[in-house]
Amino acid sequence: MDREQLDTDGDTGTVTVAVIEDHPVAVDGVRVWLEADPQRRVQIVATGSAVDEVLAGPGRRADVLLLDLDLHGRVVTDRIGGLCESGRRVVVFSALTDGGTIQAVHAAGAHGFVGKHEGRDHLVEAVVAAGRDRPYVTPVVGGAIATDAAVSPRLSPRERTALLYWFQCSSKQAVAHRMGISESAVRRYIERARLKYTAQGRTAVTQFALLARAIEDGLIRTEDIQEYRSSSFPPGP
After folding, report:
1. What average pLDDT does this structure show over 185-209?
2. I need a surface site. Which of 8, 71, 158, 181 has the fewest CB within 10 A?
3. Cβ(95)–Cβ(56) under 8 Å?
4. Cβ neighbours of residue 28 under 8 Å, at least 6 residues apart?
5. Global pTM value
6. Are the C-beta atoms of 14 and 6 separated by less than 8 Å?
7. 15-146 — its CATH code?
8. What are the residue boundaries of the structural domains of the chain, listed by start?
9. 8-state DSSP, 34
10. How confident is the model at residue 84 (pLDDT cuts 50, 70, 90)?
11. What is the arithmetic mean of pLDDT over 169-190?
């Protein structure tokens, strides 16, 4: 296994974002907020009023999708799971801030949730954190988690598989080889799982701590943690 460590990569580059919002005034507001960041950490590369419209253009290469849930009178929570499973980082920016909606958004794999009333600083920080695969919990999310009776976070099948293989393998590179995906995708699955624990107030910043959480919640059995060896990769440190 990897040595216990924080998953920080020192990334300080500009985060690109595509804004999916059907009200032009809201798009303009988001643009002003992001451009007001003194460090100019975020750059908008695409905007549009529909998910497929944005993904058909430059938005498909954005680091983060900033998604309004209510588009043209339809709540699009059902799109989040597919977007996240395809490796996209989604931050929801919505006026729908009831606990059930927030919990559903996080269960679907979104990196973050910002209520439209929460202001510029939370929006900027949530987008930057998502773009750098780091957790960020806003006050509205913290409140929703506090009233949630569920203890164990709901991990997607891919998140659970990535965790299990990470606990078994010598490195994330080996996990990527075993799952047939990129190493960056493996990192995203692991960070999404970690974010879900963080959002519930159960921080797990190291590999060992994350393993302990997963075993506590019955997501992974102790007998599943057996070393996996592939001839393609030498043992890690």
Report:
1. 81
2. 8
3. no
4. none
5. 0.67
6. no
7. 3.40.50.2300
8. 15-146, 157-224
9. H
10. confident
11. 88
